[in-house]
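Researcher: I'm preparing a figure for a lab meeting and need a structural model of a single chain. I don't have an experimental structure, so a prediction will have to do for now. The sequence is pasted below. Please return the structure as tokens so I can convert it later.
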Amino acid sequence: MDTTPEYLQDDCIFLSPSGAELAVAVDYAGDIRWCLNIKCVFDMKRLKNGHILMGTDRLVQMPYYMSGMYETSACGKIYHEYRLPGGSHHDAFEMPDGSLLCLTEDLTSGTVEDMCVLIDRETGDILKTWDYKNFLEPGLGKSGSWSEKDWFHNNAVWYDEKSHSLTFSGRHMDSIVNIDFETGKLNWILSDPEGWPQEWVDRYFFKPVGTDFEWQYEQHACLITPDGDVMCFDNHHWGSKIKENYRAAKNNYSRGVRYRINTKDMTIEQIWQYGKDRGARFFSPYICNVEYYNEGHYMVHSGGSAYNKDGEISESLGALEQNMGGTLFATTVELCDDRKILELHTKGNYYRAEKMKLYADQGNLELGEGSVLGEMGITKEFDTDIPAPVSSELIPDRYEARIEDEDDRFTFHAKFEKGQLVMLMLEQGEEKHRYYISTTAVSHKAMCCGTFLESDERVTKTNVNKAGMKGTYEVFVVIDDTKYPCGVSIEC
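Model: Understood. Here is the structure written out token by token.
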């Protein structure tokens, strides 16, 4: 840590994990003053009541889709657990009236990371839902990491009270998009227009003005400043929408950037940036954030840097590089009028950094019973039956099968060889529920949180919510051409 106690005083830099590390807070001397001992992930936010909002440690679907959010004290007291039918990921936002925006998805659909919900703070009820397919067209504006399933890859949400609008960051569209809060209609798109249909460009895109302008690529953590400017962490991954012009990691850079937009004339001007001059060592192909404190006072957190095992800047995402012998690191910088007043270097990759006090003015020592709000959704099932004879023996020990049972769901852990045909089954008389377990190799183009990745690719985790089921169910597993009883039952 390079700063002064006079500047940081009793603030700490809170870091949320992206890999094997846990969440920590570091003081002015670089000492760890706080940590979590469970794998809570994604951004930490200080709420108006002094509590901390963070994603839960309860995985509902790989690689990082969580059951919802915890509202907790820094001491670990959970006041509310918010559970969502589509789970949560990446980001949340406290509205002026206290309700919560949360990024989510429809876990039964064929796409991910393309929905947002508004949650009632007191009941956990979903008050409003925005489905991005209603105002965007999947397949347009593809970034270098685009996939059909993860076509938008939403990593941030921001509410702007002045314009009563929502702003979303879509990594796999290289785009920051803004919609009307009430109608959900698209207002504008901040993106390199290369490859977009001309009718979209004419209607929604900004035209650059001024000098020293560059578009952002695969950005994270968009925000709207009080005067309406747009800031983000420009990862600059690939550095172009044209494959032939993609940048190698060793020749690339990342930066914090601030754009001034004019929504009447649809013009855009780049008015500030930091990080480009630091070159490849400040490059993070994923995660990271910027923070606006006031005019000229910003944080730029490059949290996803990595060297490969040969000591070169890694072409892989850090969350994946960690299993290939690489070295992960993160750099967090604060600037005031372009003067560096803090720089923190840490081992490992960290999703975001937030400056907060350990002790809020209120909310640290409240006691009493916590509450569970909202509910989990019904887990997607496999419709096709796989005919297989029932074995007279239990599932063989070589599969290392075990079940972790909770009040609202259970997790089936096991180890299978790649390419095996596997299906988990719950049976209650004639009632049957089938859950397909994939054993195919997966190529991850996005991995904002590798906390739950296993070093052994044969390890599987299948989470099944108890929503929609009632009674006692016997557990079976179909492996290739044999159906094995597990010798256990699940109460729903």
